[in-house]
Amino acid sequence: MGRLVVTLALAAASLFVIELSAAQAGERRDAFEAELAQAAAALHSGEFSRAAARAERLAEAAGRAERPEDRAESGEGGAVPRSDRAEAWRIFGLALFFEGELGRAEDALVEYLKLEEDAHLDPALVPPEAIVFFEDVRSRRSAEIRAYHPDPDARRYRLLNLAPPAGQFQNGDRRKGWTLAASGTALLGLNVGTYALLRSFCDGDSGLCGEDGARYRQARALRAVNMASIVGLGALYAYGVMDGFAGLRGADGGASIRLAPLHLPGIGVSGQF
């Protein structure tokens, strides 16, 4: 009984730490997106110096692109989606271009293209001279940009996405893969621990746990937590499969899926990846 209590305590503590980390990551992401929107508004209103200052802070905070071989080791990503990181570099580069700092603008736009190789500027929003400059940068530094994108001929196995976190590791999302593995282990431990306690509380043949008293109330609470852990495991598996296929497609250079809060009896599960 003592070991089971310790197992339940460790599982509950692990879930608390995982949920706290996800909440903190979500707060950082929301703050980044709000600041990014302000930088974009400054760029579109012609406040280029202000846009450059804001975007530079965001771009440097989010980090530069990594080569595929380095990304597999470090787990590129984190709280800031790849698309938002790219947008910060785009705004920074364009603001510098309009300020006349062409050298720095070129370097910033190269960082943008390292994250979004196939990106193009919208002629309805960006003046022709900026588009010409952007395409010239792409052409002159194409070899450098291509080095930051995975080999399209590298073999990927779609079936691995049906066994998360294998799909995440295959896609280079090591940080997300370890998060899924830790979450799944904690939920599985919680499920097995509560099931074992229920077996010890209840009659093995009839499955009855009594009709009244403390043992009956404890059994009801344990059954609720046990069912919640099963639902949590199912939701985590579904997320892992969808995210694995989204990452394999790479529609935005590293697709991101956000989980809505899931409140279960005795457990609250939410997350952002």
Describe the structure.
The protein starts with a helix and ends with a strand. The chain contains ten helices and two strands. With about 270 residues, it is mainly α. A two-stranded antiparallel ribbon has the order 1-2.
Q: What labels describe this entry?
A:
mainly alpha
Structural class: mainly alpha
The total strand number stands at: 2
- Poorly predicted ranges (pLDDT <50, ≥5 residues)? 67-78, 251-273
Gap between N and C termini: 36 Å
Short description:
The protein has helices at about 1-45, 50-60, 70-75, 80-100, 100-115, 130-140, 140-145, 165-170, 175-200, 215-250; strands spanning about 260-265, 265-270.
Structural topology:
Elements: H1 2-44, H2 48-62, H3 68-74, H4 82-99, H5 102-115, H6 128-140, H7 142-146, H8 166-170, H9 174-201, H10 213-249, E1 258-264, E2 267-272
Antiparallel strand pairs: 1-2
Helix pairs in contact: 1-2, 1-4, 1-9, 2-4, 4-5, 5-6, 9-10
